[in-house]
Amino acid sequence: MQKPLAFRMRPTTIDEVVGQQHLVGPGKIIRRMVDAKMLSSMILYGPPGTGKTSIASAIAGSTRYAFRMLNAATDTKKDLQVVAEEAKMSGTVILLLDEVHRLDKTKQDFLLPHLESGQIILIGATTENPYITINPAIRSRTQIFEVKPLLPQEIELAVQQALTDKQRGLGEMPITLDPEALQHLARATGGDLRSALNGLELAAKSTPAEADGTIHLTLPIMEECIQKKALVHDKDGDAHYDVISAFQKSIRGSDVDAALHYMARLCEAGELVILCRRLLVIAYEDIGLANPGACARTVSAVQAAEKLGLPEARIPLAETVIDLCLSPKSNSSISAIDAALSDIRKGQIGQVPDHLKDSHYSGAEKLNRGVGYKYPHDFPEYWVDQQYLPDKLKNRSYYQPKLSGKYEQVLAQQLHKLKKKSQK
Length: 424
Known about the structure:
By secondary structure, the chain is an alpha/beta fold. The protein folds into 4 domains: 5-146, Rossmann fold; 152-226, Orthogonal Bundle (Helicase, Ruva Protein, domain 3), CATH 1.10.8; 238-326, Zinc Finger, Delta Prime, domain 3; 332-423, DNA polymerase III clamp loader subunits, C-terminal domain (post-AAA+ oligomerization domain-like), CATH 1.10.3710.10. The protein is built from 19 helices and 7 strands. It has helices at 5-8, 21-24, 29-36, 52-63, 77-90, 105-117, 130-133, 136-139, 152-164, 179-188, 193-206, 219-226, 238-252, 256-268, 272-287, 292-308, 314-326, 332-345, 406-423, and strands at residues 42-45, 66-71, 93-98, 120-126, 143-146, 175-177, 215-217. It has a 5-stranded parallel beta sheet, with helices on both faces. It has a two-stranded parallel sheet with strand order 6-7. β2, α5 (77-90) and β3 (93-98) form a beta-alpha-beta unit. The radius of gyration is 27 Å and the shape is globular. Keywords: ATP-binding, Nucleotide-binding.
């Protein structure tokens, strides 16, 4: 039986890895380890289909070390012993241990001395947060790297490679893939390359050839094979971004019905990752200090949605959409930081005042560092009038409160009070 396309297209060297350039790109940490042949054990965590196994196999291929794959949940201590024996004979073995968060104490105790000696280079793969789910003894002996969902353009690149590769891919098949079908495949799989390649292979092998012998893959075929509808049939691909834009603007404009409509379109297209991310952005960009409780509730709803997955994720997210729509709005936080960033980018920086500079070293006082600093906790109401901004910016005011929510009204009153004190 032929192995799935996603398995066959797995990279054999670090140069073939698609995505995860923050780890394997030029000058990045895993690339440096491979180039220097100074590998250390690591844990790769992130969503399914984002390249954890691919990175492990690419590291093995680039370093020419033996490569073995086991599952922490289903493989036994005896399986680990076989790998350890091989490591003693060959010198070093790279062990990809899937579901590493399921590693029990017996297997862990067996592995630890082999990790210490470097005979086994462990690459643990997990979808769970390793800081919460993985035993500290393993964590302390590994570096932890997060792998991220692939970008649509990265999935498109991988799909094109699969279509042209005659040895491992579908290059021997006369496939014509419509641009809108490719766009949908790249976007609707949520950064999961395995799902994209499996959907592509199913489409290619289940679609009858046309009269001229070509296999023509259209958008409806791709929708059926990945079981996700496109947001709109849209040749230029703008509809994807238009719906997301309309979703945020509907919430910002407090139109509950429109926001729920666009949310439904995103749900129907399987765009859970984008929907969750956009709601977090909206909560802090458009609601902000007018209703901080709504921001916290949004975070909780997104966490629930990610654990539930679709279709159940629609329930907490719908509550959040209604909550955000009907909440008072304030963009004062984003406006304040953008104003500060604007000054920095224009070169409006200036020297940190001497009394605020670090004074925790010998000789600092001779350089006037920290001299004259007034410790606010020594004063009534924990406030003292002293200059904090650099001289050239000392009269700059970035934060301009909005008065749409009760919480920010309180903040505005406190700010006004402090500024009045300062003026006196």
